[in-house]
Amino acid sequence: MNSSIGTLATVVDWEALLDTTLASIVAGVGVTIATATAIYGFATFAEMRRENRALAAAGGAAAAILGLLVFSAAIAAGLFVMIRG
Questions:
Q1: Is 5 a member of any domain?
Q2: Minimal CA–CA distance to 43: which of 67, 30, 61?
Q3: What is the pTM of this model?
Q4: Number of separate domains in the chain
Q5: Is residue 3 assigned to a domain?
Q6: What is the pLDDT of residues 23-39, one digit of tens each?
Q7: What residues make up the domain containing 68?
């Protein structure tokens, strides 16, 4: 029984598994927040523009653009890592 646990420990690289798990959690949460920020910004921009609140609409547009840029950068970084290895 003890030898099977030792074999499992040598077969699985626990440090690499932990690094990959943490990176995927951080990337998943980060992309989700960036996407939500972009959607919220676009919705705020549209609503504030309808109400003729230019400064608030500009803030919504800025949030939308920032979220879109972060989202795009995350996708580009993911593609870069997959292509380059």
A1: no
A2: 61
A3: 0.76
A4: 1
A5: no
A6: 999 999 999 999 999 99
A7: 14-84
